[in-house]
Amino acid sequence: MASEVIAQAHADLAAGQAWRARDGLVRSLEHTLDEDALAVLGGVLYGMGDLPAAGAAWFGTSKSGTEVEESIKAWREHHDDHFGNMWRSLPRSVRRSSEVPRVEALKHKAIERDELDGKEPYVAPEPPKEGIDAALVVAYIIAGLLVICAAVGLVQILSWMTPGS
Length: 165
What we know:
Strand content: under 5%
Shape: elongated
Oligomer: single chain
Mean pLDDT: 86
Distance between the termini: 66 Å
C-alpha cells in the first residue's frame, strides 16, 4: 500500500502536480505510519517551499541532511519552540506511534508544556476498533420495532375498513 502511494506521488510530481502528491501522501499518513512515505512527503513539501511542514514530516523520520535540518529549524521557528504546538503539527500517524526517539521526547515535553499552559495534553486518538457498535445495535432494534408497530397498525386499520371481520 505505502509503495503504491509513494509510486503515485512520484508520478504526480513527474506530471507537475506536487499538490496532488502532497495530498495523497497526507491521506495515507493519516492512518498508517510509514517512514518512507514521511520522507517523500517531507521532500514534496520542501520542493513546494513549505519548510515548516517539511520539517514536521521529516521530524518523524530518522532522515538527516542539510535540507532536513533547515526544515526542522524552520518548523521550530514557526511554532516559537512551543512544544505543544509542535507536537500537534506532526502528522497524526507519527503522534499515534513512532519509533523515533526524538518524537517520544517531544511528546513528553509537549505534555509538560500543555500542563504548564493549563491545557489538556493532546494524545492522538486510537484508531477505531473492529467489533460491534452498541449504538448501531440499539438503532437496528428500534428500527425493527417501528416496522413491527407499523405492520400491526396497518393490519388493525384494514380490519376496521373491511366489514364483517
